[in-house]
From TrEMBL:
Domain (Polyketide synthase-like methyltransferase): residue spans on this chain: 153-385
Listed Pfam families: CMAS
PANTHER family with a match to the protein in the record: CYCLOPROPANE-FATTY-ACYL-PHOSPHOLIPID SYNTHASE
InterPro entries, A to Z: CFA/CMAS, CMAS, MeTfrase_dom, SAM-dependent_MTases_sf
Protein's GO biological process: lipid biosynthetic process; methylation
Keywords from the UniProt entry: Lipid metabolism, Methyltransferase, S-adenosyl-L-methionine, Transferase
Name used for this protein in its record: Cyclopropane-fatty-acyl-phospholipid synthase
Membrane as UniProt keyword: no
Protein family per UniProt: Belongs to the CFA/CMAS family.
UniProt-recorded Gene Ontology molecular function terms: methyltransferase activity
Length: 444
């Protein structure tokens, strides 16, 4: 059976399989010593035949129709060129069951393996959103899909810091060896780095857009004496953050709101932080996002925009305005279907350009790509160490989604396909004064 499966998949994909393959009858074929893709049932093959790309593989894995026996990172590395580097290849073939292959022997193999049939229903964990893209209602549903999956589950993965963005690793063993400096320390240092870049001082007002579980808001209020308004669209984040604020004795200085950033109408703030939120805004809405933050900032105030970036974008034209006009729209990916529905990444240069168009003066850009790769590997280790509990708190499919997406994302950061940047911008006053120091010594 494994030999027949391998032959079918190699015909469909047009390349030699880089992994071993085990059929549901226990037979195996493929490179010795390689990680093993275990086809547990006929449905696994049918999913890949209908969707011969990363989405088909993701659906089969999330549903439990496929298992990976061996090192997850090594398996994804070997699949990298096959599924992620050349997604157009699979899309052009269209799948066996939609006419991508022909021949009597192929048809007979499909029938023998029980693969002929309608497209399988996607796993329940796949997002299915209705309404106009990035409307207020659809954005609420997209955020809820990702963040409202259980605070206890997130605490297993993120640790007690409950910070869901890349840490800032000042020391420790990058290979995961023994060290007194761990994730909680690196996340604390990231929060402090943001506060220093914003030059927070007692009496200031900070707007934290996409405040998550309140970690930055609490750190800024407790360590720098500022008042904070944090906004998020996640009901579970709001509930958790408010409890943390009350337990920290900061209810008089930190307000956590269930609010869309587009509905903020407060008087201008002294500083604004946006950490891991702008990826949800949407490329077509980014100019509006930048303009709103500019209006909500006092003259001389600073913005810290921490955002994942697309690296090495293609030059194919798209229907996007301004500096984003040459970004290509990709077919639906596993990340869009299961992790961040409607999320979109822009290159750092496009983000800088849009912030400048809104009136900001960009003063500093710091790339933290390697920091995010290391953070993700720790999150994966946390999940794997607490696998049974993670399944109990959510579903087996949800735990599989997080393991696959975090491990794959770590490799993408390491390979330089995506990056993450902290962009520090200022709103100069009417006379052009930024209030920024003349050198970068203050950042060291």
């Amino acid at each position: 059976m494994a030999q027949r499966l391998s032959h079918l998949l190699e015909q469909m994909l047009g390349v030699r399989l880089p992994l071993r393959l085990r059929g549901w009858d226990g037979s195996e074929v493929g490179p010795p010593g390689a990680p093993v893709v275990v086809f547990r049932n006929r449905l696994a093959l049918r999913r890949l035949l209908w969707q011969p790309n990363e989405l088909g593989l993701g659906r089969a894995y999330v549903a439990g129709d496929i298992e990976l026996d061996g090192d997850m990172y090594e398996a994804l590395r070997r699949l990298d060129d096959l599924l992620w580097q050349q997604p157009e290849r699979a899309a052009q073939r269209g799948g066996i069951l939609r006419g991508g292959m022909s021949g009597g022997e192929t048809v007979r193999d499909l029938i023998r393996l029980g693969a002929v049939g309608p497209a399988p229903r996607p796993p329940a964990e796949e997002a299915s959103l209705r309404g106009n893209r990035h409307s207020l209602g659809r954005d609420r549903r997209a955020i809820s899909h990702h963040y409202d999956v259980g605070n206890d589950f997130y605490r297993l993965v993120l640790g007690e810091s409950m910070v869901y963005s890349c840490a800032f690793w000042r020391s420790g063993d990058p290979d995961g060896g023994a060290s007194d400096y761990g994730l909680a320390d690196a996340q604390r240092d990231k929060l402090e780095l943001i506060c220093r870049k914003l030059a927070l001082r007692p009496g200031m007002r900070l707007l934290d857009v996409g405040c998550g579980w309140g970690s930055l808001a609490i750190h800024a209020a407790r360590e720098h004496g500022v008042s904070v308004v944090g906004v998020t669209l996640s009901h579970e984040q709001v509930e958790y953050a408010r409890k943390r604020v009350a337990q920290a004795g900061l209810a008089d200085r930190v307000e956590i709101r269930l609010q869309d950033y587009r509905d903020i109408s407060d008087d201008p703030f002294n500083a604004i932080s946006s950490v891991g939120m702008a990826e949800h805004v949407g490329l077509a809405q980014y100019a509006q996002y930048a303009a709103l933050l500019f209006r909500r900032l006092r003259p001389g105030g600073r913005l810290l925009n921490h955002q994942i970036a697309a690296l090495h974008p293609t030059d194919e034209p798209a229907t996007l305005p301004g500096p984003l006009a040459r970004l290509r729209r990709q077919p639906r990916s596993f990340i869009d279907a299961y992790v961040f529905p409607d999320g979109e990444l822009a290159p750092g240069g496009a983000t800088v350009s849009l912030l400048e168009r809104a009136g900001f003066e960009v003063r500093d850009v710091e790339a933290l790509r390697e920091h995010y790769a290391r953070t993700l590997r720790v999150w994966v280790s946390n999940l794997e160490a607490n696998w049974d509990e993670a399944i109990r708190l959510t579903t087996p499919g949800r735990a599989r989604v997080w393991r696959l997406y975090m491990a794959g994302s770590a490799l993408s950061f390491e390979a330089g396909r995506i990056g993450v940047n902290q962009i520090l911008a200022v709103k100069a006053d009417a006379d052009g004064r930024s209030g920024m120091p003349p050198t970068r010594d203050w950042l060291r």
